[in-house]
Write a structure and sequence with these properties.
The protein is built from 3 helices and 7 strands. By secondary structure, it is an alpha+beta fold. The strands form 2 sheets. Strands 4-5-6-7 form a 4-stranded mixed β-sheet, with helices on one face. The chain has a 3-stranded antiparallel β-sheet with strand order 1-2-3, with no helix packed on it.
Length: 145
């Protein structure tokens, strides 16, 4: 069973630096009002960033294999959190803004494959993930496989 090790070192107050197998450090800190010094990203921000990176890698690879000429991709993640603690995400809305000569059905296929089969980050979350596609500036309705 594959394992991944990440190490987070405390740097004082609520500030941590974390390093994983890639060797690239990431700083995390709490808001000032929560006792932090605002020296890094919040852990929940990083969770959303990880999700967008994971699905983005999948979608670009799938579209490349489909020979769909993607020119740009920006993924926006909007997470809705519980009011009470733990303030877990209950829903995450992902908006995929793409440009290029990509067929909407193939773009949706790539998004669904990432969500349902390939993205380890989304598979690890309990939140419902709601994708949205904006292709060449036009919102495209979902296409079911």
């Amino acid at each position: 069973m594959p394992e991944m090790h990440v190490e987070s070192k405390w740097l004082g107050k609520r500030h941590f630096t974390s390093t994983g197998p890639s060797g690239h450090p990431v700083d995390m800190d709490a808001k000032v009002e929560d006792g932090g010094e605002d020296k890094g990203n919040r852990p929940m921000e990083l969770l959303l960033m990880g999700l967008t990176g994971c699905t983005g890698i999948d979608v670009t690879l799938i579209l490349e294999r489909m020979r769909e000429p993607l020119e740009s991709l920006t993924i926006h993640a909007d997470g809705v959190r519980r009011e009470e603690k733990p303030q877990a995400f209950t829903e995450i809305r992902l908006t995929y803004e793409m440009t290029g000569h990509v067929q909407p059905a193939k773009a949706w296929r790539a998004i669904h494959l990432s969500e349902e089969k390939y993205c380890s980050a989304s598979a690890s979350l309990n939140a419902g993930i709601v994708p949205r596609l904006v292709l060449n500036g036009k919102e495209e309705p979902p296409v079911q496989d």
